[in-house]
Amino acid sequence: MKYSRHLLVGLSVLLLGGCGTTIHESLKVQQATMNPVGAGKTVVILPFADYSQADNLESSYRRQLFVSENITDQFIKYGFYLPVQDDVFPYLVDQKIIRVQTYAKPKTESLEQEMKGEWSSAMKGELQRYMDLAHKTGAQTGGGEAMGTHGLTMQEVVKIGRHFSADYIIRGRIIQYKDRQDPSWNPMRKGLITFVSGVTNKIAFGQAESDQYDEWNNTVAGAADAAFISGVTDGDLNHAIAWGAAGAVLGNMAHHSGRIPQAVVQLRLWVQDAYTGNVVWTNRVDVRVSPESVLADYQYDALFEKATEKAITTLVDDFAQVVYNVPPPAPPVKTRR
Fold first, then answer.
1. Residues 276 and 318 reside in one and the same domain
2. Distances (CA, A) of 230 to 108, 135, 195, 322
3. Does 198 share its domain with 305?
4. Is the domain of 249 the same as that of 170?
5. Measured in Å, how far apart are the chain's first and last C-alpha atoms?
6. Could you please report the per-residue DSSP string of 229-269?
7. What does pTM read for this prediction?
């Protein structure tokens, strides 16, 4: 009886201790400790030219916002001063350097309603293609000029620099900003059953013509693996048939599992002298981020956040090293827990 009482008290404490909320917070900017190279210097960040085939204006704006915020953090890290970004945009609009576009979506309600119907996957694919086309068409500016591709003359660059009393003008290109499947076959990231079935599938059949054929191939590969293991272990034909059937089910399930999302971010950055318009530095980076294991965070927003932050950090660190001879940052120290 005393043991049960202690157990009840322990469970009550555990339940009460689990109440509340979990908070995650992090300051993005780590200030330079001594003699920051950007002290007394001002940089102005202009909107990036977006060549990533944005699906609509809203997603393009969010992409621009996230890139500019990371650039702001990294230049502040080196001690540079930046005018408020919300003060830069009105000036660019007033000077007709950029144009403001509405977020209004093209009228695709009828297509979206049809997507809920009992159409085949091929038909739904065509409907989705028309919806994407409508969104892209709505994302284009009036004169047939694509978003984010407006060039600047040397005089315009100098004029912007003079208005904000800047030393540098930051410009760039978003070359790629897309999701894909990581081709890794690491079983710790893909899953053991998916790894075994997938490897057998690729060795036996190679690359499938379509997703449907790939599913069939995985089913056959799973059955073959299970039947082979059963045949080697006890040699009983009936057991091999039973294990083969179970392996076919697992192979089919493995086809729909084991997908590793990957965020791909490729950026080009230019730094121009605000007094002359000359390019003082430029570089390009390609970053691909995917989960480390099957237990990691698989959400695309987290992956793109890490990929963008890594890309911008690498570029700005390279600028500081090339232009100001700042030593490269020390590699992070991995600690065991």
1. yes
2. 54, 53, 19, 62
3. no
4. no
5. 39
6. HHHHHT--HHHHHHHHHHHHHHHHHHHTS---EEEEEEEEE
7. 0.69
Q: Which two tokens stand for residue 151?
A: 């060039």
**What is the identity of the amino acid at 250?**
L
Instruction: Quote helix, strand, coil % in the chain, to nearest 5.
Output: 50, 15, 35
- 198 and 173 inside one domain: no
- 3-state DSSP call for residue 65? helix
Question: Is residue 21 a part of any domain in this protein?
Answer: no
pLDDT by position in tens, the chain (length 337)? 566 666 666 666 555 555 666 666 666 666 655 668 888 899 999 999 888 876 666 677 788 888 999 999 999 999 999 999 889 988 988 888 887 765 555 556 676 777 777 777 777 777 777 777 766 655 544 444 444 456 888 999 999 999 999 999 999 999 999 888 777 766 776 666 666 666 666 666 666 666 665 666 666 666 666 666 666 576 666 656 666 666 666 656 665 666 778 889 999 999 999 999 999 999 999 999 988 776 677 787 888 889 999 999 999 999 999 999 988 776 665 544 4
CATH number at residue 96: 3.40.50.10610
Backbone angles phi, psi at 293, to 5 degrees: -150, 175
